[in-house]
Structure formats: structure tokens, C-alpha cells
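Module 6 notes. Inverse folding takes a fixed backbone as the condition and produces residue identities as the prediction. Think of it as a translation problem where the source language is geometry and the target language is the twenty amino acids. Below is one complete input and output pair. Work through it position by position during the lab.
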């Protein structure tokens, strides 16, 4: 028991040293309560064109099918809330995409942490996951006591809000497990009331196919005229349901230099965005998650906002 406790504390201490905001641990097992929710969400086609969400249903719910011999899911939060923001007269980019693509930043930290675990504890097998594999990140973070799933379906934490990334290490090491926290949304409906496209169809249920982030990032075809005028100048992603959440008044700026935006990004106004060239796009978003939508995708979004 003492060894299990020592290993747990060792991992959490090193996670903090690497810059993670918090770390929680759950037993690697089938997510029973999530299974019917996911099935219902898919059946109602709330994933829209995100067909990858239909793949690996069993693996998505059971980490032991993803990582052989896994015993623990270690969840991490990494703050991305910026200290500076885009100009008021600008088309908007979700704050998570201001700096270097988080996949690279977090993967490197998790790689270092896994190496540390192997050096300090011994032969531990594991895999790192950063929003790019069939893992239900928010469910595991909630199960690990890092927050609760809010009415906007984001993970919320009393002390820091929701402007953070979630990632996991799934390992074949038994550790001490944390317990979930209680829901603190109460009677608040700020996120539901503020969503311009009514994507939050019920408290705690988001129709992904109605979300501005879905339209501006995931949807590859032309944007539907039915949502014309509803994007509130968001050209990549959307932060509305987070910006209005009362818990985000506790957000504090991150201290990860790689998440700082390109200097030109914050200075651009609407006219600059309308005139953006492929060269400028490549320079500003060289290492950014915005590259996912490509230059043509961003131009499509801008045309839609200008109509």
C-alpha cells in the first residue's frame, strides 16, 4: 500500500513540475455510465460529419482494450488561458489555438513523464493520449476528480474554470485512485442562453453538428445558409459557452511560453484577415492548430462571415 501511495505522489509531483495544472487518477475499466450516452448521441447523429466518432466504440469506452494490461488512467489538465487577446475589431480564433499546437506541447511533456516513471519506478508500460485517439478525455478527467462535466459538456473546475487541455497516460501500473467531485452548475443556464446556434440542446447535451467549432473546423463542405449571421465573428472554433461561464472568472493566464501567440495575430483587424495571403497564413500559423482547417478552410469561413 505504501508503495502504491509513493508511486502516486511521485507521479503527481512530477506532473506539476512539468507544468500541468492538475493530475488525477482512475482505475482503468469499462465506462458503464458513458456507454448509453455515447450510443444515444451517435444514434441522434449529433456528431454530424465527424464519422471517426462512430469508430472503435468498445475501445472508446474501455482503456484495457486500448492498452494491454492497463490498470490506471492518469488524467492531466494544462492551462491555456492567455494573458492577451485579439483586438475587438477582429474575426475571432478560439483561445486554445493562439500558440503552438497543443498536441505537440503535451505529447512531449507526457513522453518525459513516462520516461520519469520508468526510471523511478521500473518497467512500466503505457501510452500517452492527447485528443487524438478513441479516449473519452472529459469522462476520465471527471472520474479522476479533476472537475465535473458542465451543462456545455466541458469539464469545469471550481478554482480555474475550463480553459485547459485534457490528456492521459494509460499505464499498466496500479495506483491510488481519486474520486469524482460534485456538480456545481446549479440552476445557471448562461452557456445555454448564450449559444448563437442553440447547440446545447439540453443541459449537459451538446449537438456537435450545430456547434460553431464544428462548422468552422470539422465541416469540410460549404457552410449551410441556415446558420448565416449566427457565428458572432468566430472564424476558427468558438469560446462563447466558456466565456460566459461564471466559473471562468477564476481563469488565470498560463505560464507555457509555447502557447503564446504569434505577435502578428493579436494585431490583426477584420480588414487584415480579409486580405490575408497564403504566405501570411503559413507564417502566423506555422505551428498552430489552425493549420488543421488549412488556408482554403479559413478563407471559406471568412467569406461566410463577410456575407
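Target side of the pair, the amino acids:
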Amino acid at each position: 500500500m505504501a508503495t502504491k501511495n509513493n508511486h502516486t505522489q511521485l507521479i503527481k509531483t512530477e506532473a506539476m513540475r512539468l507544468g500541468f495544472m492538475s493530475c488525477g487518477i482512475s482505475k482503468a475499466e469499462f465506462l458503464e455510465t458513458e456507454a448509453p450516452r455515447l450510443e444515444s448521441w451517435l444514434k441522434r447523429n449529433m456528431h454530424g460529419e465527424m464519422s471517426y466518432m462512430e469508430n472503435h466504440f468498445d475501445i472508446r469506452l474501455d482503456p484495457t482494450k486500448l492498452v494491454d494490461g492497463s490498470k490506471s488512467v492518469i488524467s492531466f489538465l494544462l492551462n491555456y488561458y492567455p494573458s492577451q487577446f485579439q483586438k475587438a475589431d477582429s474575426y475571432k480564433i478560439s483561445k486554445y489555438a493562439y500558440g503552438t499546437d497543443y498536441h505537440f506541447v503535451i505529447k512531449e511533456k507526457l513522453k518525459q513523464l513516462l520516461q520519469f516513471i520508468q526510471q523511478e519506478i521500473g518497467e512500466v508500460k503505457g501510452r500517452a493520449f492527447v485528443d487524438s485517439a478513441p479516449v473519452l478525455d472529459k469522462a476520465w478527467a471527471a472520474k479522476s476528480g479533476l472537475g465535473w462535466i458542465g451543462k456545455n459538456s466541458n469539464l469545469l473546475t471550481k478554482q480555474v474554470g475550463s480553459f485547459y487541455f485534457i490528456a492521459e497516460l494509460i499505464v499498466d501500473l496500479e495506483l491510488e485512485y481519486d474520486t469524482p467531485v460534485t456538480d456545481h452548475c446549479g440552476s445557471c443556464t448562461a452557456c445555454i442562453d448564450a449559444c448563437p446556434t442553440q447547440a446545447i440542446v439540453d443541459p449537459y447535451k451538446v449537438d456537435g453538428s450545430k456547434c460553431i467549432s464544428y462548422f468552422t473546423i470539422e465541416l469540410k463542405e460549404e457552410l449551410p445558409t441556415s446558420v448565416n449571421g449566427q457565428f458572432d465573428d468566430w472564424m476558427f472554433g468558438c469560446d462563447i459557452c466558456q466565456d460566459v461561464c461564471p466559473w471562468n472568472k477564476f481563469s488565470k493566464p498560463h505560464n507555457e511560453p509555447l502557447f503564446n501567440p504569434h505577435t502578428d495575430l493579436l494585431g490583426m483587424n477584420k480588414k487584415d484577415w480579409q486580405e490575408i495571403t497564403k504566405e501570411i497564413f503559413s507564417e502566423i500559423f506555422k505551428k498552430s492548430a489552425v493549420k488543421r482547417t488549412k488556408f482554403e478552410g479559413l478563407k471559406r469561413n471568412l467569406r461566410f462571415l463577410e456575407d
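Reference fact for the lab report: Strands lie at 22-27, 72-79, 92-93, 126-129, 148-149, 155-156, 164-171, 200-202, 205-206, 234-236.
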